[in-house]
Amino acid sequence: MKKLLFTLWMAGSAAALPAQELNKYWVEFTDKDNSPYCTCRPAEFLSARAIERRARAGIAVVTEDLPVNPHYVKALKTKSVKIHNTSRWLNAATVTADSTEAARLLNLPFVKNVTYIGRHIPPKNPPNHPPKKRETLLDYPKPGGDDNPLGYASMQLDMLGLPPLYAAGHRGDGIWVAVMDGGFTNTDTLPFFDSVATQGRLFPGWDFVEGDGAVYEGAHHGTAVLSVMAANLPGYFVGTAPEASYFLLKTEDTGGEYPVEEANWVAGAEWADSIGANIINASLGYTHFNDTTLNHNYTKLDGRTAIGSRGAAIAARKGMIVCNSAGNEGDGWWRHIGVPADAPGLIAVGAVNYEGRRASFSSFGPTPDGRIKPDLVAPGDQVVAAGNFGTQLGLSSGTSMASPMLAGGLAALWSAYPEKTAGEILYAVFASADQSNRPDNERGYGLPDLTEAWLRLGDFHTGSRSLFAFDRDKGEMQFLLTHDYFRPGDVFELRNVFGKKIDDITVGISGHLITTLRISGLDDLPAGIYQVVLRNGTHSERLMGVAWR
Question: Are strands 202-207 and 245-250 parallel, antiparallel or unpaired?
Answer without folding.
Answer: parallel
